[in-house]
Amino acid sequence: MILVHQIKKACIAIAIIAYLPLNAAAWGMTGHRIVGQIADYYLTARARKGVAQVLGAESAAMASNWPDFIKSDTSYNYLGSWHYVNLPAGLDQNGVFNFLDSDKQANVYNKIPEMIAILKDKQKTAAEKQMAMRLLIHFVGDLHQPMHTARKDDLGGNKVTVTWFGQRSNLHRVWDEQLIEYQQLSYTEYAAAINHPTKDQLKKWSHDSLKQTVYESYEACNKIYEVTKADDKLSYRYNFDFVDMLNEQLLKGGVRLAHILNDIYA
Ligand SMILES: [Zn+2]
Questions:
Q1: Cα(83) to centroid of ligand 1, in Å?
Q2: Which of 27, 198, 216, 223 is the most buried (most CB within 10 A)?
């Protein structure tokens, strides 16, 4: 009886371990770097200096990956839910805004302002600011990955099993990494290739609120859910259908991150 109990416990532990890192996934390395690289392009001279004072020789692109690297250290487990915000299906714009106001969980939406506040606070130490800067750069990227503003019941698409060019995958992973890797560009090549916003886009994205940003990612995730179903075999056509939306999310992420940083050091 005791043995059965222990086996049960072990199974539950394995199940939890197998499940946790999935939900904690994010834009892959390349996606985050693209956002950082594009942001760097739009920094004012003051912001560039301010960022360099915090990060030293580390670029925004390279700093963006640190919050994923630290997931291997359990003392940072408390940051797990800061990478995303789960939203229920069927909300309109006001519904999303109201949900964000009432959601008391630590999430990507309510943690970004905290990072901004730390960076503006003259009392904070260099180490505190370095961490806040790396997290801010990363989280603004995450906020633009549509499956980071997706449903709780499928863990942001982690439980939606699909294949990607015949390889077993899931919807979250396709959007974190596989669609981006499919383009076969380095992060600098990728940033250069998509960094062509119109004047109107630049103007709009530089003035959008964080709530608006969440809403647009939520709309993007709704489109993804509409088209992608469990057990779908995704390949060429999926790329054709979604590459423009993917690139716009990455570009918006970079422009909005620059705007946030410019504002901090204005
Ligand atoms: Zn993340």
A1: 4
A2: 27
